[in-house]
Amino acid sequence: MTQSRNNYPYSYEDECISYKSLFPSFNKKDFDKLDEIYNQLDVDNEIKKLFSENKINTTEDQAALHHIYRSAYGHKVGSVNESYYEIAKNSISECIELKEKLIKRDIKNIVTIGIGGSFEGPKLLLETLTQKHDRSFNHIFLTGPDKHEFEDEIKPLTKKETFFIVSSKSFSTDETMQSLGFAREWIGGELEFKDHFICITSQIDKAKEFDFDETTAIQFPNEIGGRYSIWSPISLAAILEIEEGFIDFLKGGSLADKNLDSNCNYKQFIKTVIFSDLWHNNFDNKHSRALLTYSWKLRYFTDYAQQLEMESIGKGANKCSHFDKTGQVVFGGFGSTAQHSYFQLLHQGTANFCSDIICINTDKEENALLYAQSQAQAGLLAFGEENLEDHEKVNGKSPVNLISLKELNPFNLGYLIASWEHRVFLTSRMLQINPFDQYGVSAGKIFARKYLDSNGG
After folding, report:
1. How many C-beta neighbours within 10 Å does residue 284 have?
2. Residue 2's pLDDT is what?
């Protein structure tokens, strides 16, 4: 493979990850132009606002405080009231302590009712950091609103052995409320509600309308958005399994926060990723990005990052911005599976796209073929291969961010996810849009309700 065509060969490494840029088009001159915009917009000051109680979620007139859980157990970056750290620690301790109570009650099935961030976060942690045969409970996730999902997943269970986690920040999400209704009806009147239900919410008053109270609810601050809630008690299902490992996860996220605040090399790494994203999307006609994980354990990471990015920066362009295009379309999955499906289009089709490839260094020995695939595909996508027959030739010219975790553990996963959040936040500041609201999501909910009202639903 010919890699001399790498126009911005940049690499970064720390104790958690390593990174290489494989960019056929983006170059140092492009980076410098975008860095000028970064400085004009004073994005470094925006970082300080993020790690404070500043109301950076302007449309909803509130702060974004998801980072308090990371700071509570790790580096205290920025400045927020100390009471937030106590709230964070108390709620995480409550989650960890719940496990023994459930085991004593002979609970075997944990059913998490939630959608969006209430589903993607705990599902990712559970699948990435635990093994199915080693779990203390049988875990089921209900998203709703299809009744067949409930019937297939829940009806075969034994009622007295089943415990429901109802995860909803607003406690008004249509799918979640419908699934809660199905669950209450299924449990019936012969079992105590408080023994088989707990809710995770920021709206305890609304939860009380459904018979929850302070003893059957774990609260988190309203300033934590759903897609940023993986750090909070929303991850209860996973916390029941990884226990203190969840604190390591938070500490990993905290280290990324510290680095964004004070490590110039780390900030240069994040800038490289976001500047190339913006340049390829706005000036190189690459509006889609394949996110490919060469780790079966990380197979749900694409789903998680897809929501984080597309819900945060999938907004209209700011009229004052230098950029007409905001978020890219993010798709992908487990790389080895993708190679036998849509990679044909990636290598020889006519679509324009970028790629993120994630692998794990320890797979060099543990999963040699898998690791080799990640390295080979990164080079082929970015630079192609000259020594092929015409009908075999691949396109190349598709920029790649190649990210390697040193090993897969809670700390490093926390570091990766927090870094992805930093990618999203700094991109939003460059675009001059709000990454913490989601009025497009709300519109769909509103008009679905209007349809039901108009059609007897």
Report:
1. 18
2. 46
CATH superfamily of 11-61+249-440: Glucose-6-phosphate isomerase like protein; domain 1 (3.40.50.10490)
Please write the tens of the pLDDT for every residue from 356-394. 999 999 999 999 999 999 999 999 999 999 889 999 999
319: number of Cβ within 10 Å: 6
The conformation of residue 199, written as its DSSP 8-state character, comes to E
**Which backbone phi and psi does 163 adopt, to 5 degrees?**
-130, 135
CB 310 within 8 A of CB 301: no
pTM here is 0.97
Q: Which residue type is seen at 353?
A: F
Token pair, residue 228, equals 């940023």
Among 456, 369, 449, 356, CA closest to 403: 356
Architecture of domain 68-244: 3-Layer(aba) Sandwich (3.40)
pLDDT in tens, 294-332: 999 999 999 999 999 999 999 999 999 999 999 999 999
- Containing 334, the helix (H) or strand (E) segment is strand 329-334
**Among residues 430, 431, 424, 404, which one has the least CA distance to residue 306?**
424
Residue ranges of the chain assigned to CATH 3.40.50.10490:
11-61+249-440, 68-244
Helices within 169-233 (DSSP H only): 174-187, 193-196, 204-208
**What Å distances lie between residue 430 and 282, 341, 399, CA to CA?**
13, 35, 20
Q: Are 159 and 153 in contact (CB under 8 A)?
A: no
Q: What are phi and psi of 437, to 5 degrees?
A: -110, 175
As beta bridge partners, residue 326 has: none
CA separation for the pair 321, 297 (Å, rounded): 39
Q: How many CB atoms lie within 10 A of CB 375?
A: 17
Burial of 168 (0-12, 13-18, 19+ CB in 10 A): buried
Three-state DSSP at 110 gives strand
3-state DSSP call for residue 183? helix
- Residues 117, 307: contact at Cβ < 8 Å? yes
